[in-house]
């Protein structure tokens, strides 16, 4: 290393020290990624680095979103954006410096006045906004994931060699802090995807011992596809999965839009709950009924010409959903158990028998502020009492 380079490295290390201390202190404790990026930007500015824009892009594990970008701008602060599969299909990623970083694991350094428009899709827009220097760099997570940070400035001279060295010094610590927060978010999201939002909260709060039970008063929904076995007996596995996904798309979005949580996919069955609110069961039963009606209304559009048609039945009950850890040894399942869940299932079995797609239990109707009509009293398996069921009018 020559004398000038050594002087630059020494100056950069001194300049980076306060920001490094912040990352390893406040940055590692109690801050989400959005706050972390905003705080990092403030540290760079305090170090005399004329940063005007920072974007940290972190890949995530969800069914619809590829990555989240945490963007800080000197004129507007920090915000979070999602990048989904539809945007990838539009070719935005293919024309991005982020793709180059992912493929080469090297920095992309663009002096925008000298960079041709066709180099990357962002170049014309960045130049039009007055940016002069853009750098994108890899953030290598310890788990093998490769993410990206981009830093830009409007300063006439761009970033100096010393400023670039400051950023290089800070990058490993910032990457570790971002990874810590990202792994926490990913764990929460993956759990919610596979066990449902409410069970995920219980698991992360420490409800992990076999036999632990948490009870919640709620409207309970059970949905199943009519004649699923007959409809799928000649289908391939791929065709069956496609049918199930069309069916789930009729129900799950409406459950979530009305404040419910899908707890289980049981073959062609869907179990969901709508927890009671501060006003008791009035809001939860109304939300469950709205979700059920919207789900039924979605079925015709999900059965276009050329696709296997299907029908669904929905049962609604109000009672206590009991979350419990069951299993053996190190293999547990966080599932919903109890009399009220079983009764909801039994009401659902009357859908086909009565030819009525939406049935409500007596307990549900007692909490519902809406007119209903009786569909008679019936015996159901495993219950000694005769139950009366209703349909909305």
| Distance between the amino and carboxyl termini | 83 Å
Uncertain stretches of 5 or more adjacent residues: none
Radius of gyration over alpha carbons? 28 Å
Relevant CATH superfamily of the largest domain: Nucleotide cyclase, GGDEF domain
Count helical runs: 12
Question: What gross morphology would you assign?
Answer: elongated
Per CATH, the architecture of the largest domain is: 2-Layer Sandwich
- The mean pLDDT is 90
What is the helix content? 40-55%
Structure description:
The protein is an alpha+beta fold and about 400 residues long. The chain has two domains: about 190 residues, GAF domain (Beta-Lactamase); about 200 residues, Nucleotide cyclase, GGDEF domain (Alpha-Beta Plaits), CATH 3.30.70. The chain is about 40% helix and about 30% strand. It has twelve helices and 14 strands. The strands form two sheets. Strands 7, 8, 9, 10, 11, 12, 13 and 14 form an eight-stranded mixed sheet that branches. A six-stranded antiparallel sheet has the order 3-2-1-6-5-4. Strand 13 and strand 14 form a beta hairpin. Helix 1 runs parallel beside helix 6 and helix 2 runs antiparallel to helix 6. The protein is elongated.
